[in-house]
Design brief:
Pathway: Glycolipid biosynthesis; glycosylphosphatidylinositol-anchor biosynthesis
Number of helices: 2
Distance between the termini: 66 Å
Main location: endoplasmic reticulum
Radius of gyration: 24 Å
Subcellular location: Endoplasmic reticulum membrane
Order of helices and strands: EEEEHEEEEEEEEEH
Structural class: alpha+beta
Family: Belongs to the PIGX family.
Helix content: 10-25%
Largest sheet: 6 strands, antiparallel
Strand order of the largest sheet: 5-6-3-10-12-11
Number of domains: 2
Pfam families: PIG-X (PF08320)
Length: about 200
């Protein structure tokens, strides 16, 4: 299993890939991913991608897309991977704005790897050499009845991170002053133009 971030800035793609040995029966794959409060997934965008591209992602709760990181909570995404091999999915993930600090700078948001869950309707035995445990999770993205899945342990998948800019709170007063001045000048210019040309 591998995981990487693509694109730049606040709007990225979290790309998952899973490879396994060929089997004589279909094996369903589910990634259970706990994501930090510094990022979010847009449930409306995911719904559109499900219709357009077949992307199968469930979120454990509705997310406030406008909330900054310091008032948001971590959340879980369930990513169902479908054939053909290799199993892949590119899921949009977005950075949240972070609370301004006295010095500004950058905030690093670390995304740990997901848990890998496997399920087959025709498999009764498991290779004893594979560290695993049985867990319950939704059967499919359409059928959220719980099914038994095999969670594979011992995978060495590195975390990824995204650096997001942090506002400089020491600049609040000069920024507000300049913004107010520019707004007043623009308003005065518009008022003068309207008065001069008699457009009411």
């Amino acid at each position: 299993m591998s995981m990487k971030l693509t694109k730049q800035g606040f709007h990225r793609d979290l790309v998952y890939e899973v490879r396994h040995e060929p089997t004589s029966h279909p094996v369903k794959t589910l990634l259970l991913h706990r994501l930090p409060n510094g990022v979010y997934m847009d449930q409306y965008q995911l719904a559109d991608l499900r219709e357009e591209m077949g992307l199968q992602v469930l979120l454990d709760s509705a997310l406030d897309l406008e909330a900054p990181a310091h008032v948001s909570s971590a959340f879980s995404a369930l990513v169902f991977l479908s054939p053909p091999e290799p199993l892949q999915a590119a899921v949009p993930v977005h950075g949240r704005y972070h609370k301004a600090s006295s010095s500004g700078g950058w905030e690093r948001v670390v995304i740990e790897p997901p848990r890998l869950l496997l399920r087959s309707e025709h498999c009764d035995t498991v290779n004893p050499g594979i560290p695993h445990r049985v867990v319950d999770a939704p059967c499919t993205v359409q059928n959220q009845t719980l099914c038994s899945w095999l969670e594979v342990h011992g995978l060495q998948v590195p975390s990824v991170s995204v650096k997001l800019p942090v506002g400089d709170s020491s600049l609040i007063i000069p920024v507000c002053a300049v913004t107010t001045l520019v707004s007043l000048l623009c308003s005065a210019f518009l008022f003068r133009a309207v008065w001069k040309h008699g457009i009411f």
